[in-house]
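User: Can you predict the 3D structure for this chain?
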Amino acid sequence: MADREEDEELQMALRMSLQGSPPAQPEPKRSKPPPPAAESPEAEARRKQRELMAAAAEKRLRAAGSPAAVPVARSSPQPPPQLAVVEPPPASEAAKEEKAEPEPTGVSMEEAKEVEVEEGEEEGEELPPDVAEKLWAMVFGGGVSKAVLAQWSNQGIRFSSDPETTMGLVQHEGGPCGVLATVQAYVLKYLLFFSDDLSNPEVSNPLYTLGQRRFYQSSFAAGDDFSSLTDDRKTRALVHAMVEILFLCGTGKRAVVASIARVNRGKTEAVLEGLSVESAMDLQKVLRTSTFTSRKDAFDILLANIPLFESRLGAMLFLISALLSRGLEYIQADRDDPSQPLVTAPFGHASQEIVNLLLCGEAVPNVFDGKMDLGGGMSLKGIPNNVEVGFLTLLESLNLCKVGQYLKCPKWPIWVVGSESHYTVLFALNPNVQEENELEERESRIRRAFDAQDQSGGGGFISVEGFQQVLRDTDINFPSDKLEDLCNAGIIVWSEFWQALLQLDKRAGGMKDPTGRMGKKQFTIFHFNGIAKSVLNGNASAGGSVPIQRPRLCKLNVTVPPRWTQDEYLADVVSASTSGSKDDSILSLAPPVQTSQHAPLVDCIRTRWPRAVCSWAGDVPSIV
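Assistant: Here is the predicted structure, written as C-alpha cells:
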C-alpha cells in the first residue's frame, strides 16, 4: 500500500514539473530505499520503473533539446520582440543525463517513449494574440479568399512516389510553389553534393560546407538515376535543407520551428482531421513555436516532426517558421513596401520576398546585388551577399528586371527558376558548369563593374563619371579617339561599350583574342517542375495504360558557343535588322553540334549562359 501511494505521489510531481508549475507544497522527504540485496523482485521492478519515469521526465525538461519542455526565456542577439529564446544545457550536463538513462530490466524503450509522449501532450509556446494577428496580416493581408487559404492549407512537403522523380517534392496546389521550389533547391544540394554526410547534424553549418566545397568540386561525379535514393536519405536531406534555411533566416544564431498543438508521433492525421485555419484567431489557437540555438537540436525535432511537415499544413508551417526565425519586425524592415501581403492576390502566389527570404535570409523584394541608391536618402534593397543556391527568371529575358551575380552564380549549380506565375528548379550534377574561362571571367568582372555604376535600375547605361570609374576598376585602355566617341552622348550604353570591347585587344583590357581560341562549353543540366501532371503508366498499345500524377523532370544538353568576333557580331546585327529576328541569327552562329530547340526555359538559361543552345528528348520543359 505504501509503495502504491509513493508511486502516485511521484507521478503527480512529475506531471506538475512537466507543466512548468512548481508543486504547491515542498516535496515530502522520503526514507532511503532498502539496500538492493534486501529488495524483493517485485519491489525492484517497481523501483526501476519509477527510475525510468523520472529519467523520461528529466529528458523532457531539457530546455533546448525538446519542444515538450517549457522554454526558458533569456536575452539573445537580435530576438524578435515576441519570441523567447531557449538556451541549451552545458554539454557536460547533457552527457551526464544521457548516461543516466540505461534501459531498465522489464521495461522497453517503446514504453519509455509512450510515457514521454503522454506526459508532453502540448508542445512549444503559444503565440500572443497580437503577434498572431500581425503574422496573419503580413502573410495574407485582409480579406483573403477561401481559395487562397485552401491552396496554403492543403500543401505538404512530400517527395514524389514516382521512381524517376523520387528526389523531387510534389506540388498539388498553385500558391506555395515558391516555398516548395526553394526547399527543393536546398534538398538537391544535400542529395547531390553531401550525400555521404547526411547523418551529420552539423553539415548545414556554413563553416562545415566551406571546408568541404573544394573537395566536392574536384571529385564529385554523379549519375542521373535518382530511383536508387532511399527514403531515409531523402528525409535527412529535407531536414538538413529546412535547418539551413531556418538558421539562415535567424542570422545563423537561432531557428524557430512552428508546429500544431497536440500533434505527437502517429497522431498527425487524427489531429488535423477537420482542423480549419481561416483567421488569425484560428492560427493562434493551434500554433505552437519552439526556438533552438543548436543545429543538432533543431535537426532532431524537425526529423521527429517530419509527418507534420508532410501533412497538408506543411508548406504553411514552414513559411511561418522562416518568418518567425527572421523576426516579424525584421521582415517588415527588409521590405520596400511592408503594407502588401507576402502571399499575392488574387491567385495566392508566393511573392519574391518569400523566395528571397529562403534564399538569402532577408525578405528583400528585388533580385539585383546590394542596394540601389535613389537619392534623397531613399534606396531599394536587393540581395546582400553570396548565396548557396541561386535564382533565374523569365522576366529578365523580357527586360523587366536584372538578376545580379549573387543569384546567377551561387555556390552550388542549383537555381530556382521564376516565371510569371510559377517557380521550378534547374540544377546540374557537376559544379564545373559554373567555371569560366579567362575571357568569361573578364566579361563577368567588367559587367559587375558596369552594373555597380548603373543607377537606372538595370536599364544598361551609366554616366561618363561612372564610365571612367569602370575603366579604372577593370584596367581598360581605350585609344583617346574611341574614348571620346563613347563619351560624346553624355551616357554610355552597355551594348555600345561591349561592341567597343570586342574590337579592343585583350592586352589593352578588351575582349579581342588574336588566337581565336575563345572557348566552347558543353554540359548537361536538369529541370524539375513539381506540379503533378497526368501521364500514362503502362503500354498504351496493349490497352494497359493508366493515368498517374507525377512531377516532370527534363534532361537538357547545353552548348555555349565560343565568344563572337566583331565581324560575327556585326553580321548578326545586319541579319537581325533584315529578318526581324535576332534569335535565328544567334542560333546560326552556334556550332552545328546538336539540333537546337526553344522554350521559355531556354530564355532563362540564356540569362545565365548567353547564346546557349539547348536540346532535349521528350516533352518540352515547362516553367508554368
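The mean pLDDT is 78. Residues 41-60 form the longest helix (20 residues).
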